[in-house]
Amino acid sequence: MPRKKIAHSRTDVRAMWDLMQKMGLEPVSVKYHPDGTFRIMTAKHAEITKPNAETVSGTYWDKVLHHG
């Protein structure tokens, strides 16, 4: 599947980043998609999708082998 032409510029991404900060959000990264769009990820999203090791109760195999 060929990539579509990018419909935004670096200035557009920076403007959205600044807007998110003004809204009280904490942007941490930008993800570019093959369809030419982008998504700005926030710190809150990163906490939800990547929990720290203390909150993870172990992997599937830890549970199967009774290690966790």
Description:
- The protein has helices at 10-22, 43-49, 60-64, and strands at 27-32, 38-42.
- With 68 residues, the protein is an alpha+beta fold.
- It has one domain (10-64).
- A two-stranded antiparallel sheet has the order 1-2.
- A hairpin with a 5-residue loop joins strand 1 (27-32) and strand 2 (38-42).
- It is flat, with a radius of gyration of 18 Å.
- It starts with 9 loop residues before the first helix and ends with a helix.
- The model has no long low-confidence stretch (mean pLDDT 77).
What fraction of residues sit in β-strands?
15-25%
Structural class: alpha+beta
Largest sheet: 2 strands, antiparallel
**Count of all domains:** 1
How would you state the average pLDDT, rounded? 77
Oligomer class: single chain
Q: What is the CA-atom radius of gyration, in angstroms?
A: 18 Å
Tell me, briefly, the overall form.
flat
Task: Count every beta strand, where a strand is a DSSP E run of 2 or more residues.
Answer: 2
Helical residues, percent = 25-40%
Strand order of the largest sheet: 1-2
Distance between the termini: 42 Å
Order of helices and strands: HEEHH
Low-confidence stretches: none
Task: Please tally the helical runs, counting DSSP H or I stretches of 4 or more residues.
Answer: 3
